[in-house]
Write a structure and sequence with these properties.
Elements lengths: L1 H22 L3 H7 L4 H29 L1 H21 L3 H13 L3 H11 L6 H25 L4 H23 L18 H10 L4 H29 L3 H30 L1 H18 L5 H28 L5 H29 L3 H32 L4
């Protein structure tokens, strides 16, 4: 029953991301049709990340208070509404507002992570979080392919098809999502920490603060690559839209495989923190060599980037979950907020850096990954000191 319940959570998150992925390839063209420029494309994409930054800790903390199932269902309902609004948007302002609604419901990731932790044994926590990441990643990989296949329906038709997928996902979740309470659901509402408490806890704890900071800086590095690789690939390798689509599909598949199959096994053997540090090192190494590699080495470098991000993202979430306690959802929401802030700021900074020198976003990203590794090691030393104080024995 536990395994079946986890599969339902994974499926719900996969379909949720699938719905967004379906409209992703057509969204920039719709913005142009409505009279928008490249700045509007950036604004619409950034609006989602900023709204997610604000709301992820709130939804996570609310799931601690009221239960995972109702909050995940509410997020899925919000996704269906936002996709329908995108389809009917006939102005740039309406389109921007629809993406804000989608971002406000983007806390489904943090709630889903907490749900998976609740349904997992402690020794299988990292594997469960890895499968959450893999489910989300595959939704982004498959969704754009479906969107491209449905392009003949027009933007409104594709958006409404995506909204229909999201609605079916909501109805399936209402029937299939387990009602069994997790450990945090049994805590009376008045005793469950809120979002502001989770944020303060994350900032105050010396074992947790460096992990959240590492999530932010490493995601800045990865988002910078996502934002500028199309330009770099076109200049260095002559890649067009089709070639770039295949590249990013490959990156998504590698990440999903690492998150769903490799990260958990590696964490079982070496521990979450060591695997997270290794992930930061792989991500940094891949970014450092991308700007000057010949074409035949560019793809292995991208595989390093994808594998590093997959390892780091999964094990960092597990480290945050380990410190969650009763505020598990809120803590995971803080981690998602840090990633969302990076996705909002990273591409902007990367674009400016790319204009100065094409390789600069990648060199800076590699440096940020080095900083992430240092932060993770620092959190390990803080954890060892805390364990020594609590038990009187060295960690």
């Amino acid at each position: 029953m536990q395994r079946k319940a986890l599969l339902v959570v994974y499926l719900a998150l996969f379909v949720d991301m699938l719905g967004f992925g379906v409209i992703l390839p057509l969204l920039p063209f719709r913005i142009e049709q409505l009279g928008g420029t490249g700045a509007w494309v950036g604004a619409v994409l950034t609006a989602y990340a900023l709204a997610q930054f604000v709301m992820a800790p709130v939804l996570g903390a609310m799931s601690d208070r009221y239960g995972r199932r109702p909050l995940l269902l509410a997020s899925l309902a919000g996704s269906a509404v936002s996709l329908a609004l995108v389809g009917f948007a006939d102005s740039l302002v309406m389109l921007l507002a629809a993406r804000v609604v989608a971002g406000l419901c983007g806390g489904a990731i943090a709630v889903g992570q907490a749900y998976a932790v609740d349904l997992s044994d402690p020794e299988h926590r990292t594997r469960a979080l890895g499968m959450v990441g893999a489910s989300i990643g595959m939704g982004f990989v498959i969704g754009p392919a479906i969107g491209a296949a449905l392009a003949g329906l027009g933007f409104t038709g594709v958006s409404l098809a995506a909204a229909g997928i999201a609605l079916i996902n909501l109805l399936a979740g209402m029937v299939l999502l387990p009602r069994r309470p997790g450990p945090n659901d049994a805590v009376p509402p008045r005793r469950t920490p809120g979002a502001h408490t989770a944020l303060a806890h994350a900032i105050r704890l010396p074992t947790l603060r460096p992990v959240v900071a590492a999530v932010f800086v490493s995601m800045c590095a990865f988002a910078a690559m996502e934002a500028t690789y199309a330009l770099l690939g076109a200049r260095r390798y002559g890649l067009g839209p089709a070639g770039l689509g295949l590249v990013f599909t490959g990156v998504g598949v590698v990440m999903a495989v690492v998150q769903g199959g490799v990260a958990g096994r590696a964490a079982d053997r070496f521990g979450n923190r060591r695997v997270a540090v290794a992930g930061a090192a792989l991500l940094g190494a891949g970014l450092a060599v991308l700007p000057f590699t010949p074409p035949w080495l560019g793809y292995p470098a991208l595989a390093l980037v994808a594998a590093g991000q997959g390892l780091l993202g999964t094990t960092a979430a597990a480290l945050i979950a380990d410190a969650g306690g009763r505020a598990l959802g809120g803590m995971l929401g803080v981690g998602q907020a840090a990633a969302a802030a990076a996705r909002a700021l990273g591409p902007i900074a990367a674009g400016v850096a790319f204009d100065l020198r094409p390789g600069l976003p990648y060199y800076l990203g590699a440096a940020l990954c080095g900083l992430a590794a240092v932060l993770l090691l620092r959190s390990g030393r803080a954890h060892a000191r805390a364990t020594t104080i609590e038990t009187g024995q060295p960690a």
